[in-house]
Amino acid sequence: MGVGRFAYTPILPLMHTQAGLSAGAGATLATANYAGYLLGALAGTLAPVLVRSRAVPRACLLLLTGTVAAMPLTHSTTVWAVLRLLAGVASALVFVVAAGSLLHLLRDHPPHLPGWGFGGVGGGIALSGLLVLAVRPVGDWRTAWWAAAALTALLAAVSWQLPPDEAPVAPVAGTAARPRTHRWFGALFVSYTLEGVGYIVAGTFLVAAVGQDSPGWVGSGAWVLVGLAAVPSAALWARLGRRWSRPGLLLTALVVQAAGIALPALVGGTAAALGSAVLFGATFIGVSTLALAVGAHLRFPRSVALLTAGYSVGQILGPLAVAPLLHHGYHPALLTAALVVLAAAVAAGVLRIGHPHHMVVSGATVPGQQRESTRDARPGPAGP
Known about the structure:
- The chain is 71% helix and 2% strand.
- The chain has 16 helices and two strands.
C-alpha cells in the first residue's frame, strides 16, 4: 500500500518535466487519489464484511498493482485521475484489512509490535524513493511507473496469505452508559481534520518542492528518508504513550511536523530538505495512531468513522486549497500547510484542557492513557 499509494510523490517531478503534467493537474490527480481513499475508508467502515473477506483484499492488491502498471500507458489526465481514484479505494481497503489483521494476531502482545507493522507504509515510501533514485539515470517517468508496478506486484504476492480480522464479539447488553466527552472529541475532530489538510500537501508536493532548489537526487533521497523515519514511528509513539499523556504527545507531534513542513521553504538547501524529511516521516503516522487512540479512550460513538471522514475530507481539500499557490512555486504551499498543521496543534492544545485521563462510568473508573487496551486503540481506516 505504501508503494501503490505514495510512489506518485517521487514520480511527480518526472511527470512534470517529461510527460507535460502541469502543477494544477498534478494536484488534481492527488485529489482523485484522496477521494478514492475516502470512498474505500467509508466502505470499510460502513460494510465491515468487506474487510473480513479474503477475496476483497486480494482483489484490491490486484487492482492496486494494475492501476500502477496502467499509469505509463496513457497521456490522458482524465484516465490518470480515474486510475489514481481506484488506487485510493484499493489502498484504503488494504490498509483496513492489514490493520485489523495485525491487531487481531497481536492482540495479546505489547502495543508497539503492531506499530512496527504500520511502519510497513513507511517501508513502501522508502522503497518507492529508492526506486526512483535508481531509475532516474537510466529511464523516464514511464520506467519509474513500470518499476513501481513490479515492486507492488512482488509485495502483493508476499502478502497474499494475510488473514483478515475476525468478526468482533458483540457487546453485552445493558452495559454502562457512555461518558459525556463531546467537547474533547470536538477538539480532536477539528485537530485531526486540519492535520489531514496540512499533512497531505507535504505528502504530495515535498519531493517536487525540494527538487526546485536542490540537486536531482535530493528530492527522491528526501522521500527515502521520509519512509525510513516512518518505519519505527508508530512503535515509538506507542511506547511514549505508555508513559506520557497522549493529548500532550499529539500536540508535540503536530508542532514537530509543522516545523518539518516549513523547513525547506524557510531555509532551503540540502540539509534543510533532508531534515524536513526526517521530521515529517517521524510524525505523520504517529499523529494518526495517537489521534485514533485518544478517540478510542474518549469512547465517543463511532469515533473511528467520524475521524476517518474528517481526515479523508481534509486530504481532499488540501491539494485543492493550495492549487492556486502552485503558480508561485511550492514554497507558499508548504508554508500554508505548516500553518494549517500549527492550527491542528492549537486544537490539540485545547484537547488537553481538563482531558479525562481517567473516566468514571456508573461508579467504575475507566483507566486512562497508560492502560488503554491495544484492541480499543486500534488505528482504523483514518490512517495514512
